[in-house]
Amino acid sequence: MEAKTWEEELEEAAHILAESNYVVALVGAGLSVESGIPSFRGPGGLWTRFGEPPMNGYQVFLQNPKKWWEERVAQQRQGAGSELQQAMEQAKPNPGHYALAKLERMGVLKYTITQNADNLQRVAGCARVAEIHGNRLKMRCIVCHFRMPREEVSLEVLPPQCPECGGVVKGDVVGFGEPIPPDVLDICQREAGRSDCMLLLGTSGTVYPAAAFPQQVYQKGGALVEINPYENGLSHFCTVAVHGPAGEVLPLLVERLKGAMQARSGAAGHQKRS
Ligand code: APR
Prior knowledge:
The chain is of the alpha/beta class and 274 residues long. It has 10 helices and 9 strands. The structure holds adenosine-5-diphosphoribose. Residues 28-30, 33-34, 39-42, 45, 115, 133, 202-204, 206-207, 227-230, 232, 245-246 line the site of adenosine-5-diphosphoribose.
């Protein structure tokens, strides 16, 4: 069978979204690549270039939170932020982020589960977002999960203590080996459970529990619509895959969706008039 053209993939994706009742997006690092933030895996990814980091970062933190914090503060004082941190500090939302906010305002996108900690979807205007791997602008208590803006946390005494329960505070970003905070995991599981169509945007689908959500939607007969320039572990489950960069594809998808929805409401209107 001949490969579908981009146009055909886009039309099919718009049709599926227009026909679905509860679209949930699963967002990965690929959505922010066009904002200058490198992905982790795939061509040009950080882990592709430098190898995966140790998988026990959280356990190292727990062994000596004071030492972990002293090293972090010293690094920041030397301006030794990693390539990823520096890219995140300078990044602005790209057309893909704004298109997601538009899909939310159109009532098409019901919720977004994002694996990105870059805060760009909130800046772009998305309101219904669960940050399964945390948010780089926040700090979190590892005991009661109380979150606070990072600038409100004093680093005079290390490790910082939670104002609510006195527990140890760390960055909100979920480290390797760290459990997903239960409050945000509950929201993700609730939204994945409601979804009859999951929009996979720039994720390699390799990190759990996030990678389990598309499989859950697939197993209950839901549709998977992927936007990714490259094939990956989830692609063969997908109902349709649009092979292109999210920053270009998503705005086109919004335009086609508007057309599909107008056609549907027009047809419905016509039936009412006659
Ligand atoms: N548009 C859409 N997708 C893109 C683009 C783009 N412009 N550029 C790259 N991609 C795709 C890649 O093909 C790849 O499949 O984005 C995906 C990025 O995959 P990962 O780097 O593995 O990112 P992600 O799936 O979010 O990783 C999950 O792993 O390292 C941890 O905590 C980190 O949240 C991250 C998690």
